Amino acid sequence: MKADRLLSALLLLQAHGRMTGREMSRRLEVSLRTIHRDMEALSMAGVPVFALRGARGGWQLDEGWRTQVPALDEAELLGLLMAQPRVVGDGTLAGAAERALRKLTAALPAALRERAASIRQRLYVDTTGWRGTTENMAMLPIVQDAVSRDRKLSMIYRRPADGSEPTRRLLDPLGLVAKGSAWYLVAKTSEGFRTYRVSRIEEAEVLDVPAERPANFDLEAHWKSSTDAFRRNLPRYPATLRLDARGAAWVGRWRMAWTEQVAHDDGWTTFAARFDTEDEACFVVLGLGARVEVIDPPALRARVADEVRTMSARIAPASPPEISPAPPASSTPSSPMPAAAPGNATPLPSARLRIRRGSSPGPKGRGPAST
Predict the structure, then answer these.
(1) 175-189 pLDDT per residue, tens
(2) Phi and psi (nearest 5°) for 192?
């Protein structure tokens, strides 16, 4: 609705001070001509909005003018409560967010306040992974402080599992990005823009030196372009695999990057799979076991077959011991049999074990598999 759009435009100007028409049209998802009409409508309604000409111009409210934020409706309240403070991942920031949320709900009308309490009782956010893993957010408040105050940040950063020692870095923080349960710091360094995982920051200190922020830096646009470039530059190892119904179901749940090629009448499906390396491809194929068949490349098929042979040689049971057959009943034993004791059963002929040359008894009398 136009009224909602006018209110959104007014709040944008109030929050940012000055915005270009193009930026407002992008935020509100309307044309530039619509923005001009909306600004004229606000001006006619008595809102002191005016245009600034020039390269750094745009639309701006009269300095010092503010409007009261209208009460939240139920949809807006629900959306706000869905972003629970627990998603922050840090206890200090979560506590501050919780206090702010309580203050906001206290200012709501009684009906909406009761509705908010009811919604919160029916919503819980668990940021811990299924395997008990969680991100270390101890440095997040310090990083957020540097970002919000535009101050340089000195930190000791640990690279992911490359064996190198943590290093100290001096950078200009530009913004924070939350992806899943992880937080990332986007910063400008002497080597250009870099992204750091907050959980790998071991120490951090906010310096009393202003950070250098590029003009018109757009955090969202930078993140999207950098992540797209990251995906394009990932190592790729394509393979064609044929999976049975259970294997195909596993792919549907966990391997979304695979694309289905052909579904066969026998219940098997051919997939175009993508891995980072041949090692990863071999690992996944061996994990699928008999549910998968490697079609291509031949090198992967040969490697999997070699791995299976090696595994079989390690776990195959030893050959059973050979027992010499008992002599026929009509033949005369080579040595006299001991007489049976009165009241006892006649003992069986003694058996002789033969161990093949080159074998040696292992644990519990087992030897290696014969070849």
Answers:
(1) 999 887 788 999 999
(2) 110, -165
Global confidence as pTM: 0.55
Measured between alpha carbons, how far is 72 from 28 in angstroms, rounded to an integer?
Answer: 19
What does the angle CA 168 – CA 228 – CA 147 come to, to the nearest 5 degrees? 40
Determine, yes or no, domain membership for 346.
no
Question: What are the tens digits of pLDDT across the range 287-328?
Answer: 888 889 999 999 999 999 999 999 888 886 655 656 656 555
Range of the domain at 22: 2-61
* Count of CB atoms situated within 10 Å of the CB of 343: 5
Tell me which residue of 183, 114, 193 sits closest to 144, measured CA to CA.
183
- The predicted-structure confidence for 3-44, as pLDDT tens digits, reads as follows 778 878 887 887 777 888 888 888 888 888 888 888 888 888
Q: Sign of torsion, CA 319 320 321 325?
A: negative
For residue 139, how many C-alpha atoms fall within 13 Å in the half-sphere facing its CB? 27
Q: Say how many domains are in the chain.
A: 4
* Residue 237: its H or E element: strand 237-243
Query: Is residue 321 in some structural domain?
Result: no
318 by Cβ neighbours in 10 Å (0-12 / 13-18 / 19+) ranks as middle
- What single string gives the DSSP state of each residue in 110-162? HHHHHHHHHHHHT-----S-TTS-----TTHHHHHHHHHHTEEEEEEE--SSS
Whether residue 245 sits in one domain with residue 228? no
Asked whether residue 38 is domain-assigned, the answer is yes
Confidence of residue 259 (pLDDT cuts 50, 70, 90): confident
